Amino acid sequence: MGTAGRAAGPGMIRLLLAPYAGSPVVTMSQPHPHSAADLALAPVLIGIERNLAQLRSTTDLEFALALELNDDDSWYPGAEERAQRVIRCATRNVDLHGWSVTPTPDGEGLAVSHGEYTVSVMLGAQLAGYVKNGRKHTPMG
After folding, report:
1. Contact at 8 Å (CB) between 35 and 117?
2. In the chain, domain spans
3. Is 119 helix (H, G, I), strand (E, B) or coil?
4. Which value, in Å, is the radius of gyration of the alpha carbons in the chain?
5. Which residue positions in the chain have pLDDT lower than 50?
6. Alpha-carbon span 92 to 50, nearest angstrom
7. DSSP letter (8 states) at residue 82
8. E runs forming strands in 4-134
9. pLDDT value for 105
């Protein structure tokens, strides 16, 4: 009998190739995950998106950032510094599992990267405007 048919001993896991009769075998699309970091991408993106959603929905972005990070807007005079501030807030309490987060070249999003893979998460108008223009940017609405 094949591996799937053998009884599992104590502390062993039984490999069940077909969980029920007639179940289709679905192959995973390319590329396959190559590491634990690859498998962690979904939880990383969900955590970042949740944090960004809170910032996007606020009517006082500056207050929300200051409260979340316990800092002051005066510490971020340029677009690069403000982008890092948004990244700090977006990744707060998110285990990145080896993924890195940087601003996208156009300043409209965050690039979440690991090895050869990069996924962009858009900031939205209010956050992108803040990164580019600072306090001068007024929220939409």
Report:
1. no
2. 36-136
3. strand
4. 22
5. 1-6, 8-9, 11-18, 138-141
6. 10
7. H
8. 100-103, 109-114, 117-122
9. 92
The pLDDT, as a whole number, for residue 16 is 45
Q: What pLDDT is attached to residue 85? A: 95
CB distance 112 to 99 below 8 Å: yes
Own/partner long-range contacts of 52-61 (Cβ < 8 Å, ≥24 apart): 52/90, 52/110, 52/121, 52/123, 52/124, 52/127, 55/86, 55/89, 55/90, 55/126, 55/127, 56/123, 56/124, 56/126, 56/127, 59/139, 59/141, 61/126, 61/127, 61/130, 61/139
pLDDT at 138: 46
User: Side-chain half-sphere of 3: how many Cα atoms within 13 Å?
Assistant: 6
Q: Contact at 8 Å (CB) between 76 and 82?
A: yes
Alpha-carbon gap, residue 14 to 119, rounded angstroms = 36
What's 50's DSSP letter? H
Q: What is the pLDDT of residue 42?
A: 84
